[in-house]
Amino acid sequence: MAKLNGLLKFEGTLENLTFYKSADGHLVRTKGGVSKNRIMNDPAFVRTRENGAEFGSIASSGKLLRNAMGPLLVKAKDGKLTSRLVKVMGQIKNMDSTSKRGSRNVAQGLTDPNAKLMLKGFDFNARAPLATVLNTILSVDGVTGEINLASFNPMEQMRIAAGATHFSLQAGFLNLDFATGVFDLTTSDEVIYPLIQGAISPVLTPSTIPVGSGVNFNVLLIEFFQEINGINYILNNGAYNVLTILKVE
Q1: Global pTM?
Q2: For burial by CB atoms within 10 Å, which of 36, 96, 157, 224 has the most?
Q3: In order of start, what are the domains of the chain with their CATH numbers?
């Protein structure tokens, strides 16, 4: 695979070259390879089929988590979230010690407590990791989903988006069953604070406890706003918006 650096950028196939656009720019690769029919039926490609099945499984698991987080995720994500999440899901799949090769999956992998730790601290927006935006201590109640933030001064303990006059905090409590695809997401009220000197000690409590027998995720969302004539407008770039998994049980 090579990168196309010329002035003329195009997509498509020319003789044995395929030109396409990706997140990394305009790329070119050669055509060819083994036929799909041979890959699906030739015993020599059994490992390829197994790897393909497991990759499909982890990709589906990543998509399921993104969908379940939808109302929050739309406010804080980056362009490479899908690939980053697939990488983590692949590591969790590898923790499945009971399924046969080709059938290992995320649901079974998460029965290992160490697999849950792989998702703890995951930032859905890599441009704004929680640790670089907010500098205070957080505690999470795994039963109620309540998030407590230690007393902090936003003007001194936050990395503030350019032009922002306000910010908001919101807790999310998700129960997700990766085996069945069933999920339930509840949230706290979104509380908006002015960016002024002075300490605050927010307590964020989800409206209800999510129903389900899957894995519980506690997440925190931080957004930035600009007030104009008494109305708070969401900053469009979202570069500093945070959505982070604080706890997985």
Answers
A1: 0.82
A2: 224
A3: 1-32 (no CATH), 36-117 (no CATH), 130-248 (2.60.40)
